[in-house]
Write a structure and sequence with these properties.
single chain, 484 residues, mainly alpha, 2 strands, globular
Length: 484
């Protein structure tokens, strides 16, 4: 890579760092209003971040030029690391976590919308820190890079390359002719739906602060809560069903929400991925409901409510909890573990493999079986009425194989530190899929705090790989990337 390209990357990363510092102003203002001790933590964090960003802007300023694909992946991959390193500072300076490694874990979990936490008691934290914790997930949900493209003209250069490298899913939707307009449209939809959820939660048993924090983490499919018992702390069927509805929206391709808000709601039913996604939610909810009715002895209302909430929460990779599902039959736990690998739709804030990839893999598998019976038949794989090129199918198959390979290697590595197999498998699945809680020592009522520091580093890398869909980060460690 040429030096001038490295200068351009460093310059853009400085802009992102400045933007990350700017996002701390909202919780900083709340900390000042509350008169909390966390106001100093935000002051120090903002000062350090701005200082480094200003130095970078002055030292690495370079002429504007089209951002190549290679540089775009570097900005995206390194941008999340830089933002999380800065975002960890308030957690560290406030004493919310015992050390900087834990602070970085917490912040990466926030920005990647994973929801795995090392904080044992969130209810004792000042409101400024709690708001920042939720805000990191909301920012990470739609993407820091997309936010920067929408607000900062300096990132308009090569915006499409950044957009393709940043947005989850195999084929990002371009809603407007200009990429900056697309980023703004997505963020307007995101803000609008978030505001609607705040209103619905606020008119229930939540106060405005809890409503805002939980709306941030619901729309990001993040799962951070202001309560130790998560959503179960509110003991409200109304709250649970409102959050279920908005989790389903958050796990849906935001392009469909944009079309619906611009007068085309029929696009939901016409979209094959959304139909597949909705069908799986219904089938798995029904199956888990039957299991709870026959095995646990819950009432019909309780079984439906708990099943719907946990299936939607896990499959959309939100990670909220209303029940200790480790007390459920092993079949129910295995079902939830399997759902961790599905994820939301492409173009949603959900993580993991994504529905469209699962759908196309199933279609490709069916085609291979069909060809055994009809070897001369022409049978292209279609998504709706659109035939899918073979290179796209190969790319999806390659991605899933790489995802599972990383999963297997990470499980073996984590288990080598003395963790039991249940904890090792579920913790890697929960972090690589950006879900949050797992099973065993990292269950819905537990935290990641007791895990060894080396395991936290491995799981932090898993969170970043999962959020960036592997390639944007993995490319930085390949020799071919650094060759001219």
């Amino acid at each position: 890579m040429e030096w001038r390209n490295a200068r351009q990357i460093a310059y853009l990363l400085s802009i992102l760092l400045l933007a990350a510092a700017g996002t701390m102003l909202l919780p900083f203002a709340l900390a000042i209003a509350d008169g909390g001790a966390d106001r100093r933590a935000f002051a120090y964090s903002i000062a350090i971040s701005v200082g480094i960003a200003v130095f970078g802007l002055a030292a690495f300023r370079s002429p504007k030029k089209e951002l190549a694909r290679r540089e775009a992946f570097a900005v995206v991959g390194l941008g999340w690391v830089v933002a999380s390193l800065a975002g960890a500072l308030p957690f560290y300076f406030s004493g919310a976590v015992p050390g900087y490694l834990d602070a970085w874990f917490e912040c990466v979990s926030g920005f990647t919308t994973t929801g795995s936490t090392v904080i044992l008691d969130v209810e004792i934290l000042p409101r400024g820190i709690l708001l920042w914790r939720s805000f990191t997930q909301w920012l990470g949900g739609m993407g820091i890079i997309v936010l920067a493209m929408a607000l900062l003209p300096a990132l308009g250069v090569g915006g499409m390359q950044l957009y393709r490298a940043e947005m989850p899913g195999p084929e990002p939707d371009r809603l407007r002719p200009r990429i900056r307009e697309t980023a703004k449209a997505l963020w307007l939809v995101y803000v609008g739906i978030s505001a609607a959820e705040v209103l619905f939660l606020w008119i229930g048993p939540m106060d405005w602060f809890d409503a805002v924090c939980h709306s941030f983490t619901t729309m990001a499919t993040g799962g951070y809560s202001t309560r130790n018992a998560s959503i179960a702390a509110f003991d409200s069927a109304y709250v649970e069903w409102v959050i279920v509805f908005f989790m389903v929206l958050a796990g849906t391709n935001f392009a469909l929400h944009f079309f619906a808000l611009t007068g085309k709601p029929q696009r939901y039913l016409k979209d094959p991925e959304f139909r597949f996604y909705a069908s799986l939610l219904f089938v798995f909810t029904a199956g888990l409901t039957i299991l709870l009715l026959t095995s646990v002895g819950d009432s019909a209302g309780t079984a439906i409510r708990e099943s719907a909430f946990q299936v939607v929460s896990i499959m959309t990779t939100t990670g909220y909890a209303t029940a200790d599902y480790e007390l459920w039959p092993i079949a129910g736990q295995l079902l939830l573990l399997g759902l961790m690998f599905l994820g939301g739709c492409a173009g949603s804030t959900g993580g993991s493999i994504k529905q469209v990839r699962i759908q196309l893999l199933l279609k490709r598998g069916y085609r291979e079986v069909f060809r055994l019976v009809h070897p001369r038949a022409l049978s292209p794989v279609r998504l709706g009425d659109r035939p899918i090129p073979s290179d796209v199918l190969q790319g999806i198959a390659g991605y899933v194989v790489l995802f599972m390979l990383i999963f297997a290697v990470a499980v073996l590595t984590v288990a080598s530190f003395g963790l039991d197999l249940e904890t090792a498998i579920s913790s890697v699945a929960a972090t690589l899929g950006n879900i949050g809680p797992g099973l065993g020592e990292v269950g819905p009522l537990d935290t990641y705090q007791p895990l060894p520091g080396a395991v936290k580093v491995i799981l932090t890398v898993c969170m970043l790989l999962g959020r960036l869909e592997i390639y944007a980060l993995l490319l930085l460690f390949t020799p071919a990337y650094w060759r001219r």
